[in-house]
Amino acid sequence: MSRKVIQAYLDEIEQLLLNCSNTYIEQYNIVILTTERDNLRIRIRFALRYLLEVSEAFVIVDNQIKYIDYRYHFQDEQNSNDYLD
C-alpha cells in the first residue's frame, strides 16, 4: 500500500509539471530508499529565467505522506535568492 500512496503523489507532481507552461525541467530525480521512503529533487527553469529547486524527503506513515525534510529555493533573474525551509 505504501508504494501506491507514493506513486499517486509522484504522479500528481508529474502532472503538475507537465501542465506548467513556459518551463524547462532541468532535473527530476526520485530516489527510492525503501518501500516507504523516497527522496524527490526537482529543478525547474522558468521562461523568464527564474529558477525553482524543490527537495523533499518523505515517508509513509498510516498511509499518509509525512515529510522528514524539505527545501524550496527560488532564484530570480538577478540571482537573488529566497529560501523557504
Number of strands: 5
Report strand order across the widest sheet: 1-2-3-4-5
Number of domains: 1
* Helix proportion range: 10-25%
Q: Order of SSEs, N→C?
A: HEEEEE
> What fraction strand?
over 45%
CATH third-tier fold name: Nuclear Transport Factor 2, Chain: A
Our count of helices gives 1
Low-confidence blocks of residues: none
Q: What's the N-to-C terminus distance?
A: 29 Å
Shape: elongated
Quaternary organization: single chain
Q: What is the C-alpha radius of gyration, as a whole number of Å?
A: 14 Å
Mean pLDDT: 89
Coarse structural class: alpha+beta
Major sheet: size, sense and barrel closure? 5 strands, antiparallel
Supply the CATH class. Answer: Alpha Beta
Tell me the CATH architecture: Roll
Would you mind describing this structure in some detail?
By secondary structure, the protein is of the alpha+beta class. It has a single domain (2-84), classed as Nuclear Transport Factor 2, Chain: A (Roll), CATH 3.10.450. It is built from one helix and five strands, in the order αβββββ. It has a five-stranded antiparallel beta sheet. A hairpin with a 2-residue loop joins β3 and β4 (64-75). The relative contact order is 0.18.
